[in-house]
Amino acid sequence: MGETQTVPMIHEDALPGHESALDRKPEWQPRYPGSGRLEGKVAIVTGGDSGIGRAVAALYAREGADVAIVYLCEHDDAAETKRIVEAEGRRAITIAGDVGDKAFGERVVAETVEAFGRLDILVNNAGEQHPDKDIRDITEAQLKRTFQTNIFGMFFLVQAALPHLGKGAAIVNCTSVTMYQGSKELLDYSSTKGAITAFTRSLSENLIGDGIRVNAVAPGPIWTPLNPMGGASPEKMKTFGQDTPMGRPGEPSEVAPAFLFLACEDSSYMSGQVLHPNGGNIVNG
């Protein structure tokens, strides 16, 4: 299948990062044989090039889905995720661009439907974060950029996808433990995650009559390029994940099954809910 690329967008801190550049690679590999739970389905996974998105794409492919891998500018990571999906015997396309741009969201859906003929699952996983210890250090550009990527992009993709989603379709959004616990260094990021949780619950009410389920996953500290490549301060990275009850960061392969459960018929009686793979933190969610 084809690949579409765009001119990379550079953030203030040169994010996003590349999984290929990490010394310790995240564990994305599915842990079990597939059982056909997504046989014949087509999924869009934003942020699908690396981290949680790669693990979700790999697991969806193992369970029978064809996958559109949406990413910003990490072409090497996206190519590897495409190879992973195809190694599972499924089809994949890669589409590069800015999810915060409405026209790009429309193009993602159009190219997915053109390539695969249908759309059944939308995974809104793409996100960005920038640590700031002082709220006065958050520039207007960064504030707008974080909201544009993390929540505006979800609106744009849902708007574009809805004409192609029928009864039994699923939308799975990625929120965060920071929405429930707060984060003193991630003021803008955690605020977008609160918006995503409210969006998930409200969109569920809006679409449930059409047979479309909307749920979310709220990961805790997960070993992906997001944090070590500049999404967390160097001080925080020294003890990343150690403050969870399990005493370690999670792996993408430990989060992907939550996205699978919410996308398949196993969760047919769930909508407007949030799952919490977060290392044992108790949250009121």
TrEMBL record:
Alphabetical list of PROSITE patterns matching this protein: ADH_SHORT
Basic and acidic residues bias locations: 10-28
CDD domains: SDR_c1
InterPro entries according to UniProt: NAD(P)-bd_dom_sf (IPR036291), Sc_DH/Rdtase_CS (IPR020904), SDR_fam (IPR002347)
Pfam families hit by this protein: adh_short_C2
Region annotated Disordered, chain positions: 1-33
Keywords: Oxidoreductase
PANTHER family from the UniProt entry: NADPH-DEPENDENT ALDEHYDE REDUCTASE 1, CHLOROPLASTIC, NADPH-DEPENDENT ALDEHYDE REDUCTASE-LIKE PROTEIN, CHLOROPLASTIC-RELATED
Family: Belongs to the short-chain dehydrogenases/reductases (SDR) family.
Protein name as it appears in the record: SDR family oxidoreductase
